[in-house]
Amino acid sequence: MRPQRGQIELKNPKEQDEPTKDFTFDAIYDENSTQSDLYEETFRDLVDSVLNGYNATIFAYGQTGTGKTHTMEGKSEDPEQRGVIYKCIDHIFEHMAASHNQEYLVRASYLEIYQEELRDLLEAESNKRLEIKERPDGGVYVKDLTSKLTRSVAEIQEVMVRGNAHRSVG
Ligand SMILES: Nc1ncnc2c1ncn2[C@@H]1O[C@H](COP(=O)(O)OP(=O)(O)OP(=O)(O)O)[C@@H](O)[C@H]1O
């Protein structure tokens, strides 16, 4: 791995003479990278753009055990291990606290796509299957998804704890 150049080289150990296969990405992170490196280099600007009125998505994708939960959540109680979600929340609420001439509304939803079905993790009766719809003016949305008004970091954390309790465990 060459994080400085955003490159990964793959070599077949059984075929030493074969050329390596090189893949280039906008950024890559190896075992020396910290949660902070990832947030500061890759996500901070994205969240800033949301605070300026744009939409953004952070999407973790990968097979089981590859580190999605580690990256997105990490460990909330350890400042060094806090993942992207906690860092986004801190960033958003710090920004709001420092803005005196703007009003913000923060709503949190938590849904799960599991075996091709959508479930609302904030709904006590979370077995109800949700549907994806599209509106000409607002784009794609999930019909009847719970959206909770949150006024502080602590309130969003409560939403996460509640949602996590309803997640499917493989
Ligand atoms: N970058 C990392 N540094 C240290 N430990 C890591 C890292 N990424 C993942 N791990 C550890 O590897 C294990 C599997 O990671 P994790 O649970 O985040 O995978 P996942 O992709 O969310 O899996 P699943 O799809 O099954 O939920 C965990 O014990 C996690 O702490």
Automatic annotation (TrEMBL):
Keywords: ATP-binding, Coiled coil, Cytoplasm, Cytoskeleton, Microtubule, Motor protein, Nucleotide-binding. It is found in: Cytoplasm, Cytoskeleton. ATP binds at residues 62-69. SUPFAM superfamilies: P-loop containing nucleoside triphosphate hydrolases. Belongs to the TRAFAC class myosin-kinesin ATPase superfamily. Kinesin family. GO terms for biological process: microtubule-based movement; mitotic cell cycle. Gene3D superfamilies: Kinesin motor domain. Residues 1-170 form the Kinesin motor domain. Its main location: cytoplasm. It comes from Caenorhabditis brenneri (Nematode worm). This is Kinesin motor domain-containing protein. Residues 11-20 have a biased composition (Basic and acidic residues). It holds the Pfam family Kinesin. Signal peptide: none annotated.
